[in-house]
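[09:14] KT: can someone run the structure on this one? pasting the chain below
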Amino acid sequence: MRRLRRRVEAFRRNIVQLGADEIARRYFVMNAFDGSLTILGIVVGFVASGEGSARLVLSAGAGASLAMGLSGAFGAYMAEMAERHQQLRVLENHLFRSLEGSKMDRAARQAALWVALVDGISPAIAAAIPLIPFLLVLNGLIVMQVGIAASIILNLVTLFILGIFLGRISGKNIWLRGLFMVGAGVVIVLILLAASSL
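[09:31] RB: done, structure tokens below
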């Protein structure tokens, strides 16, 4: 147990020292926002078309969140590894020796892995939350209209929480940041409804 604790602490220290914690925070907010708005777009699209079933919304939402999660994780890992390798090459040129297999090399891999993990999980979680009401619809616990309303409300709550998170990071008013994110969601809903009526 003590060895595991030491490894976790070393991992955390590497993440902080290489600045991967800040990068992961940015990715978390950006991709959670994307995940949330993607599901919002799917739900509003089905509402506007009048042809959506709970199963169809769940299938489309699950497929979109899985695709976002996997593409985000792989893309972030590849991009971060490229950046970390470039930084190691610069350092190797100054030290006149290879750093492959060194503590710095392992730390760089850990940082890339952490960023990729956050990048992949955040849109999937944000997308999964507003899909919960459709599971209830599918199991006959609520009707479709209630499921749609609950999904949109959960989506806006998710956006509000993301805004609060941004407010805490930036030291700005958390309530205003939360309302700003909700406002962005509402504007997008109105745009989608307007576009679907054309």
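[09:33] KT: thanks! The first helix runs from residue 2 to 17.
[09:34] RB: yep, looked fine to me
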